[in-house]
Amino acid sequence: MTKDHVEIWNSCLSVIKDIVTEQGYKTWFEPIVPLSLTDNVLTLQVPSQFFYEYLEAHYIDLLKTVIKRFVGAKGKLEYRIPVDSTNTFGSITLPSANRNFPKNPIGQPAPERLSSGPINPFVIPGLKKLQIDSQLNENYTFENFIEGECNRLARTAGMRVAKEPGKTAFNPLVIYSGTGLGKTHLCHAIGLETKRLHPEKTVLYVQAEQLSTQYVTANKNNNRPDFINFYQMIDVLIIDDIQFLAGKAGTQDVFFHIFNHLQQNNKQIVITSDKFPSDLQGMEDRLLSRFKWGLTADLQSPDLSTRTSIIREKLRDNGITFPEDVVQYIASNVRNNIRELEGVMNSLMAQSLLNKKAVTIDMAQQIIDRFVRNTVKEVSVEYIINIVCEYFKITPEQMSLNTRKRQVVQARQIAMYLSKKYSNASLVSIGQQCGKKDHATVHHACKTIANQLETDKQFKVMFADIEKKIALS
Questions:
Q1: CB-based burial, 249-271: b 16+ in 10 Å, e otherwise
Q2: Residue 238: helix, strand or coil by DSSP?
Q3: What is d(CA 363, CA 315) in angstroms, rounded to the nearest whole number?
Q4: 3 state DSSP class of 333
Q5: Would you call 331 helix, strand, or coil by DSSP?
Q6: What is the pTM of this model?
Q7: pLDDT tens digit string along 329-346?
Q8: 407-437 tens-digit pLDDT
Q9: CATH number of residue 434's parent domain
Q10: Which of 153, 148, 237 is CA-nearest to residue 191?
Q11: Domain that includes residue 361, residue range
Q12: 445: phi > 0 → left, psi -120 to 50 → alpha, else beta; which?
């Protein structure tokens, strides 16, 4: 029985997966789609010209081996690249290097090279844009992002950016807030609205940690220019949680060059952060100054009116009704962030549906007691430092001094321990804010405090007093 192209490619993948790294497999082989197997030629669809060139440069020998193994000695490989020309999708077919074709298979002048080295895909006729997954969540739209006083500026600016990406004074648009207040929702909404209004533009949402991981991989494989070239082709680049680049000098350096190129070419940049740009620790000054070029807008905790609207919107989306007194009770008692509010709502709706019971205030109270009051709240490192310094009657500046004075050292270690427990900051970020210490110092401090809590009753009482002040914030 003759195997089809999907079976053949799956067999190839089973071998490739055991040879390449997990990251390499996910990045360069999972996106490939097998299209056909005709006359011993296996045709694969790849996302872009850049993708095709990378496979040919780094994996051609491996591909030759598996193709010959599963297709046969006469097996050959061909790539197909989707293109967008005047809003109609077609494709360009390119042979692999293991076929005896001329170097320029589509009968056009050889593509020119950029100064940084990689081939420029835009000069190939018809290949107007990279066909990439924007990584946007279709559920996070402007329609279900409830507007209130707490978010009006950021939401309005986001809609303006989506309408005219790269053409407003809001470039970059920096959105900052604490956890669970809608930063991620808003930046996905900006991306989706941009794609709706400007389908010809390439939009990409990426988390800062993902960007850093990609850079490390590219640098390890000596592909830094290709990495930069790819990101410089994006029309609307959305970087979520930029604070995770703190202390990562290499990624910050490469992002600096990407940022400059995009802005100089009127491409839109949207960034989210957990704090105001000037408060970000472990970030290069040249990046921080650029973050301030556009508009910085914050998202604040939703007021009662906004929380009530969010509850009603969620009930409406799910086709469920709650008594008005329950709606008001939830809105009045879940105040910290939207994520918490949605968690309570999900739990109540599940309880109601599974137990086939009407939702009551008693039921809401039980859920809130379990879900909210037992949840460890996230607070900023800066706030924790201030609480600790106030307790020890020292200033934050004194705590940052390079001194062995017992009171200062203990205050710093407690601040580090509590920051690790109550904030979402990395050890690098905590260390930077607690006297410009490295992550190893933070790790040692946390271990020291944990040991003291187990062995020193007097210290444990003192620590509980400090922690209580943070818990009541």
A1: eebbebbeebbebbbeeebbbbb
A2: strand
A3: 16
A4: helix
A5: helix
A6: 0.52
A7: 888 888 767 888 888 888
A8: 999 999 999 999 888 877 778 888 888 988 8
A9: 1.10.1750.10
A10: 237
A11: 304-371
A12: alpha
